[in-house]
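writing this on my phone so excuse typos. first protein, seq and then structure
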Amino acid sequence: MVKLSKLNRLILSIWSTIVVFVIGVDDFIGLMDYISFDDQNGLSDSFKIVIQYFLFGMSSIYLVQNFFLLFLLIPSKEDQDNILFHENIRDHYGRYSESQAKRLFSIFCIIYCFVFFYLNHILKILPINTIIWIVTFTFPVVLNVMIKINYKKSEFID
């Protein structure tokens, strides 16, 4: 496996922060189209709206955290030695592992995302931003379960 450099991890952190911000703003604009629950057609429409607002609330926390991480990269006049600036850069690249994921997990991630996005495209269940947030929040959980199962299996084999 190839180790990811600090610069690659810093770029990845900044890039993901920008992407999350753009998706969050787009999601917020989309949610403003819903005026009230009374205008919806039944329980399923109301449930979709509740899911969207819940995911937007969760993503807002992530958005604010990422925004502050980006904001803290701006050097301050009080930090003459750039100590805080370098600590903030360490926080950014510290968010990502030095090692890359195994190919099996990467392939699983592609399949996982494809299945969610394809089914949503065909069935038109939820807006695309909502599916993006669902995949963003559920995939790490599913991946951790897979890693633990894989780890347990390797204990039995050894």
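second protein below, same order as before
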Amino acid sequence: MKKAFSAWMAGIFLLLSGCSRIPQTNNIQSEMVTEITITCETCSDFTRRYYNTGKKMQPILLFIRKIGHTFSADTDPELLDGNTISIVMTCADQTRKIYRIKDNRYFQAGSSPWQQIDPEKAGSLWKIILATPSDPEKNPMTGSSVPRYP
């Protein structure tokens, strides 16, 4: 009886040994921001910042998260001559997310429509950019790392 039970258990273990858990991809890790490139253009000035350390990227990421309530733009921001801030976030999977702020009043995420935002909140981004120097770049000023958007 013990031999039959042992053979039966061995057969079950052999059948189940081919089963394994399928590893799931970690989407959170692939969406982790690894670098941020910011360009700020005014009528007379151009500022560029590059960040790849968490300490310097965190205020920018928090700023994007805290944009708050947005409303449809009452005008076409593309026609305005005000300053433009472009934020390009590169994720671990090499995808990019692009955000733009125009004249401290309008915000655009990717290619979505422009939205109106609180000018005081947008002004706080200027303070962050001016107070935070760039990190050293691996390949400074290559064509793909210099985002300039009209």
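Residues 82 and 90 are 26 Å apart (CA to CA). thats all i got for now
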